[in-house]
């Protein structure tokens, strides 16, 4: 991935969401620098499951892990059961839950960034990965004279809505 003026390599693991693979996925948390929490906007159970994933994150992930909440499949507008506002509320709730669980300074200040995506149309997919990569890059470079990268501001500025005609 090119992040001007440098490039970045991301190693991406798609962990199995099913309960029966849970013990295997624990192993991935420990060394992860970022976690993308995905639910399916056409599947309420996947939305409700985010709470369980947060508990897992607290237990197994690094304390300063970069988190992002994504509501996927927004191209399936006719099957949508989870509203965008519910996702936004959940992103705030994620913060409260994690604050109870840990003292992640980044989360305390800004909350969990949230956006809706479509793997089918590509809506916001590049943005999600670019935002994560930029955040990690800035953290790793630690340049004192560089302005701090603000993940939330970046996501807010760049995010595209699914709207009626933009999948
Ligand atoms: N319409 C639509 N379908 C999608 C989208 N993303 C994934 N799918 C479909 O949803 C189904 C499940 O996708 P997966 O990527 O296997 O979902 P998963 O959450 O990784 O599933 P697990 O491996 O069980 O955790 C597949 O049929 C995909 O083609 C999307 O953005 N829009």
Automatic annotation (TrEMBL):
SMART domains: RAB (SM00175), RAS (SM00173), RHO (SM00174)
One family name in Pfam for this protein: Ras
The entry's keywords: GTP-binding, Lipoprotein, Nucleotide-binding, Prenylation
Stored Gene3D superfamilies: P-loop containing nucleotide triphosphate hydrolases (3.40.50.300)
Reactions catalysed, as given in the entry: GTP + H2O = GDP + phosphate + H(+)
Family label: Belongs to the small GTPase superfamily. Rab family.
EC primary class: hydrolase
Entry GO CC: membrane
Subcellular location: Membrane
Coiled-coil residue spans: none
Gene Ontology MF term list: G protein activity; GTP binding
InterPro entries according to UniProt: P-loop_NTPase (IPR027417), Small_GTP-bd (IPR005225), Small_GTPase (IPR001806), Small_GTPase_Rab (IPR050305)
Protein name, entry field: small monomeric GTPase
